[in-house]
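User: Hi! I have a protein structure encoded as tokens and I'd like to know what sequence might fold into it. I'm fairly new to this, so please keep things simple.
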């Protein structure tokens, strides 16, 4: 069975508490349910995780090699800073989608830079919580192509 790891980076555990105009009103737990329902519907496995710690995200990426078919990552603000996360993704060589709730290219210029885009085959952004099931569909299409 196809299995996808969905990683969420710093501060995404706070979703639904502030800035609903930017990130939507759903909590991360609501988004996890969206992903689990999607997975059930299309008969795949999804493992959904969040950490505020760069090293933990990197450890999970390393461990994803041979354990998952694809990686979907919303690296939060590490998107714009972390060459270490970029290198970790490159090292495991699993198909990766970069995901964001907001459209980072239409926000402050410091958010226009993404290190993840160098190692991802696609990016989905600006669709809020709905971007997560979209990313799952995109990954499954890619894996089945
Ligand atoms: O749009 C996205 O998904 C982001 O990855 C979210 C990150 C941000 O740093 C990226 O530039 C774009 C931040 C998530 C912070 O979430 C909060 C939720 C509630 C209150 C405050 C922050």
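Assistant: Happy to help. Inverse folding works backwards from shape to sequence: for each of the 145 positions I chose a residue that suits the local structure. Here it is:
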């Amino acid at each position: 069975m196809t299995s996808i790891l969905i990683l969420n980076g710093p501060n995404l555990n706070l979703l639904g508490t502030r800035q609903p105009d930017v990130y939507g009103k759903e909590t991360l737990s609501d988004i996890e349910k969206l992903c689990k329902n999607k997975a059930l519907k299309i008969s795949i496995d999804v493992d959904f995780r969040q950490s505020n710690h760069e090293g933990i995200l990197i450890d999970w990426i390393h461990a994803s090699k041979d354990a998952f078919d694809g990686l979907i990552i919303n690296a939060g603000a590490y998107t714009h800073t972390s060459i270490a996360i970029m290198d970790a993704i490159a090292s495991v060589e699993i198909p990766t989608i970069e995901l964001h709730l907001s459209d980072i290219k239409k926000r402050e210029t410091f958010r226009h830079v993404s290190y993840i885009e160098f190692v991802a085959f696609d990016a989905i952004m600006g669709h809020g919580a709905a971007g997560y099931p979209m990313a799952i569909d995109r990954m499954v299409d890619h894996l089945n192509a």
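A useful reference point when you look it over: Helices lie at 20-23, 28-42, 54-64, 83-92, 131-144. Feel free to ask if any position seems puzzling.
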